Amino acid sequence: MLPPWIPGDVVLEATGAPDLDAVHGELLRQWGSSEVWRLSYGLRSVIAKRGTDTQSGEDVVYERYVVPLELPAPRLLYGADGVLVLEDVGRVTLEQEPTADGFLAAADLLAEIRSREVPGPSGFPPERVKELAGRIGRIAFDLAPLTEALAALHREAPQRVVHGDFVPKNLVSDGTRWTAVDWPLGYVAPYLSDLYTLVRDAVALGHDRGPIVARYVESAGADPFLVDRQVLVGGACFCLLALAFVVEEGTRTIPGSDEWIEPLLAELADVVGQLS
């Protein structure tokens, strides 16, 4: 039985199914703030998503960045009121098959995303550091080095799209190409939090950091010294955003997420310390 929020007419047109009873539904994720289904008929399938809270703005990110910039993301078939129907871009994620080649391909994919110039104001200006710290309310160390480094990057580096959750579970392959999925947290900034999270997970899985960063630098034609600073600043900003999410929303929607707070605080302190 498919949930009632799924737009049946869109699914029928995309899959070619004669009616909804003929559509096979596979629940891929169900959290307090999001629900994701794969809907298939024969060889044709789509992804249907419903999001609330921080997961509800993916259609806006598509309208603002993904579509006009032609980013490597699933094609949007329908989007309204927190519900999306998307092209199904593959069944294998980097989380399921965390190979070294997969992480290198993800670095290439990130370089492609960041190749598009983005006009408009930053989604993470320097003053946001203090604002997020106030919302989190339990940071006992000095964030001034981060604020200063972030301000410098806004002067020295171009703004590019930040996926916001560039981690193995959101990197999907159909066997030929890789695609970044799950874009509700997208915004623009001059740092590299996406490369930070990609490398963070790769190292946790036993891969070396160096080849992944080197692959990104080569694919993007970037200055390696600037990339190192962008990764550090991006890592600290990622930790701030993750902490704000857990404190304000995660503890309510994701069981056990309160256990993430202390490790994230320690990680933030470590990264900010490297900026000092």
TrEMBL record:
Taxonomic lineage from the root: Bacteria, Bacillati, Actinomycetota, Actinomycetes, Propionibacteriales
Protein name in UniProt: Phosphotransferase
Domain of life: Bacteria
SUPFAM superfamilies xref list: Protein kinase-like (PK-like)
Pfam families documented for this protein: APH (PF01636)
Record domain Aminoglycoside phosphotransferase: where: 68-210
Transmembrane stretches, start-end: none
